[in-house]
Amino acid sequence: MAFFLEALIGGLMAGMLYSLIALGFVLIYKASGVFNFAQGAMVLFAALAMARFSEWIPQWLGFDNKILANVLAFAAAAVCMMIVAWAMERWVLGKLVNQEGITLLMATLGASYFLDGSGQMIFGSDIYKIDVGMPKDPVFLLESVFQGGVLVNKEDVYAALIAAALVAALALFFQKTSTGRALRAVADDHQAAQSIGIPLNRIWIIVWSVAGLVALVAGIIWGSKLGVQFSLQLVALKALPVVILGGLTSVPGAIIGGLIIGVGEKLSEIYIGPYMGGGIEIWFAYVMALLFLLVRPQGLFGEKIIDRV
Amino acid sequence: MFYRENGQFKTSYKADEQIFPIRQDRIAIALLLAIAFIAVPLLAPEYLFRAILIPFVILSLAAIGLNILVGYCGQISLGTGAFMAVGAYAAYNFNVRIEGMPLVLSLLLGGACATLVGVLFGIPSLRIKGLYLAVATLAAQFFVDWSFLRIKWFTNDSSSGSVTVSGLQVLGIPIESPVQKYLFCLTLVTVFALMAKNLVRGAIGREWMAMRDMDVAAAVIGIRPVYAKLTAFAVSSFIVGVAGGLWGFVHLGSWEPAAFSIDRSFQLLFMVIIGGLGSIMGSFFGAAFIVILPIFLNQLPAWLNIPMSTATASHLESMIFGALIVFFLIVEPHGLARLWSIAKEKLRLWPFPH
After folding, report:
1. Assembly ipTM
2. Would the CB atoms of A237 and B131 count as touching at under 8 Å?
3. Model pTM?
4. Cβ-Cβ contacts under 8 Å, A286 against chain B
5. How many domains does chain B have?
6. How confident is the model at residue A165 (pLDDT cuts 50, 70, 90)?
7. B339 lies in a domain?
8. What tens digit of pLDDT does each residue of B20-69 get?
9. Confidence of residue B195 (pLDDT cuts 50, 70, 90)
């Protein structure tokens, strides 16, 4: 039982991190109808920027304070992501208005090659580490209930808390600010939003910037777990089943989908994996999402698509 | 002046229904085939065969297969690499396990296995649409990658995980030198391209296109979605499977699952989109573009005498590749095939503008 709980909590924590990346997909899809395959490259780019700036800024300015360096590096990386967002709008999406979904998807794939190349060219292509002072020691919970307690990684708990805080902040931003309202309007209906005077271009830049910030946070958390390297962008592939399971247009869907996938993946690896030769977590999430979609084609919380002739 | 159909009257249904109704087109195609089958093998150096021509021919075949699914039937698939892998590994198993199995037959049987897998993973397309389907087809990609890596039976219990074929021959003629490989692939591709062209002109092709343009409307006028979508998946994965077999047997010779990774799927999708959705000719253009571009970008610094470290060069390459893809999508979202047809239209009027 303790072992099961441990796996369950581990899965929930991992799921929280998946939802963080899935959130980036959903934000952009909602506002611009683009399925952004470059999200993984954005995570890598942001993490590389963060890692390198936290090295470079103390050297440039000649101080030695880790917290200050991290704060400044975060700001610098955020500026980088905003530049990326602006460039995406200016040179890619702005030119492809009214194209089909698959053309836009291919364009973001092209952009992801570009981001991969430029990110590694500017910031270097070795393995870097991000040290934001997250504790790495494990803790034991519920020691009074079970013998030996339940082993939980403290780093995971912090990561999950940060993710939850970010989601709450985003929800507030979307529900309570006027920009958020404009974003929701654009997500609902581009033309109607434009006709009441919401500037589409600016909204897209804002959405891509927010997605870039989410990518930055995801990059920091994943980067401090795994190290910043090229394989970081593969994490985005793990978030894809989360997105379709939760529904492409739903923020809560991304969170709950992430939790389901995280838990399902962990438990299946432990309880089914040994019978199938191991390593099944690579495809299990996809097959799970696929089977689920057979029942509900629009995902858990996605908008129901009604076809008319 | 020269490219127009004036004076070419059709006096029978047969003449009206031929693939290339304009005489100049027929001459151009005959010339093209003559160049591909006779002039190129005589003139091209060996490096050209290995690096460009053989991959180009095989990937065009795969692109044709994918184009049937994406371009004609409108079902986005990101699992093409998986269907290629199924074709290659199934052909390998037929080749190794059955004594004296002819090469062409094992390739075709490999294609048949890919068909089965394709139809299986095509079933969700009856419920799921668009981008959801695109992501769902990734399930095929990861599942197939995993099974060829982990299930030892498929790789004939090879200890390293990679499989090797040797001593290829067709009807007693060995296929060893690059020229022979090229001719073998080219023959198969020509046959399949003609077959595909005929399929998409026929009743079933029209059903696919109706499905692509609006599936509900197509169902209303009596096209069965199940039949149309699953046949598209079947035909597409058959062709892709044969292409996978060729890629493994003829181009690589010895391979492991990484040869058919998700990058391959993306690469093929790029070919189809840059070449032109819903165009057999476009598949060739797209394949040529995507095969030649990286080689060209790779050679460029050497030609221009710019000293560059390999890491910088590879990053620059991926930057330029990405930028060019975006550029192409912006300039011509309908692909190179569209440019081709615009050129043909212009040619009909040339040199008199009216």
Report:
1. 0.82
2. no
3. 0.87
4. 135-136, 138-139, 142-143
5. 1
6. confident
7. no
8. 877 888 888 888 888 888 887 778 787 888 888 889 999 999 999 999 99
9. very high
B270 within domain boundaries: no
Residue A216 lies in a domain: yes
B329·A96 Cβ contact <8 A: yes
Contact between chains at B139 and A290 (C-beta distance less than 8 A): yes
Q: Any chain A CB within 8 A of the CB of B222?
A: no
Distance from CA of A203 to the nearest CA of B (A): 21
- Closest chain B CA to residue A277: B150
How many Å apart are CA A151 and CA A145, to the nearest integer?
Answer: 13
CA atoms of A164 and A166, how far apart (whole Å): 5
A97: nearest CA partner in chain B: B330
Contact B270 A286 (CB under 8 A): no
Does B130 touch chain A if contact means CB atoms closer than 8 Å? yes
Q: Which residues of A touch B318 (CB under 8 A)?
A: 113-114, 116-117
CB contact under 8 A, A96 and B269: no
In a domain, A178, yes or no: yes
| A184 assigned to some structural domain | yes
B194 touches chain A (CB under 8 A): no
Flag whether A94 is in a domain. Answer: yes
Tens of pLDDT, residue by residue over A111-125, are 998 998 888 888 877
Residue B129: inside a domain: yes
Specify if B342 maps to a domain. Answer: no
A151 contacts A140 by C-beta, under 8 angstroms? yes
Contact A240 B135 (CB under 8 A): yes
Is the CB of B120 inside 8 Å of chain A's CB atoms?
no
The domain in which residue B198 lies consists of: 20-258
Q: Are A39 and A211 in contact (CB under 8 A)?
A: yes
Rg over CA atoms, chain A: 20
- Give the structural domain span for A106: 2-227
> Per the structure, how many domains does chain A have?
1
